[in-house]
Design a protein that fits this description.
mainly beta; Pnp Oxidase, Chain A; Thrombin, subunit H; six-stranded antiparallel barrel; six-stranded antiparallel β-barrel; disordered N terminus
Length: 225
């Protein structure tokens, strides 16, 4: 009599197979605090992940086969998270590591209007006029922006106005730029509060926004609870 051997979960049709090279994934390393943006090199046909490791990690943390890492990423409006192990690593031509195929992946659908709170320095431009302030929340579809400004600002930035927003995202490289349409504008106690709906984001900005949001949501822990 033979005994059936349990099979590993079949992930061959996972949408994660479609991740493009260069997409930013967020990795937590044993012994380090925080989540580090790492460019994805490849998801192999066997489901292993090859990820470049930035100097901010290699100068502070030795890469070791067998270490457990937590990976988070966003793809086509869904956040993914999983724990896996480092299978191997290399330092030339640049530091990289190969991660074992994940067998359990947590998923959370990210609606267009799902917003995460934040405090990010930003600027909003309308023609020649520019306002400095803070993003107070951010989503794939838009943001809310506050600025201490003059009483005539709402007249210049009324609902329906097209604007350009520029803002950094922590450890995501260069400044991000997104065009959008003002959906609300209110002056309250000397603070202009505007809500902006993004237009079509460039692929690079969309990837960075999704990666930033993924870094603020504990997908793995929520799935395990």
């Amino acid at each position: 009599m033979t005994r059936d051997v349990p099979k590993e979960p079949e992930l061959s049709h996972s949408p994660l197979r479609g991740l493009a090279s260069g997409r930013i994934v967020l990795v937590e390393f044993e012994g380090l605090c925080g989540r580090y943006p790492c460019p994805l090199e490849e998801v192999t046909p066997e489901g292993e992940w090859i990820v470049r490791v930035p100097p901010s990690v290699t100068t502070r943390h030795p890469l070791r086969a067998g270490d457990t890492v937590v990976v988070r990423c966003a793809h086509e409006g869904t956040l993914y998270g999983f724990r896996t192990q480092v299978k191997s690593h290399a330092f030339r031509p640049q530091a990289s590591m190969t991660l074992a195929r994940p067998t359990e992946v947590g998923m959370q659908h990210l609606r267009q209007d799902d917003r995460v709170p934040c405090l990010i320095p930003a600027s909003v431009s309308v023609g020649e006029k520019q306002l400095s302030g803070m993003l107070i929340d951010l989503s794939r579809g838009g943001c809310r922006f506050n600025s201490e400004t003059t009483v005539d600002a709402p007249a210049a930035i009324a609902p329906g106005t097209r604007v350009m927003i520029r803002f950094p995202l922590f450890q995501m490289g260069e400044q991000q730029s997104a065009s959008g349409t003002v959906r609300s504008a209110n002056l309250i106690d000397g603070v202009l509060r505007i809500g902006v709906e993004f237009g079509e984001l460039s692929a690079s900005v969309s990837d960075c926004v999704e990666a930033y949001i993924a870094g603020l949501i504990d997908i793995v822990d929520e799935e395990a609870a």
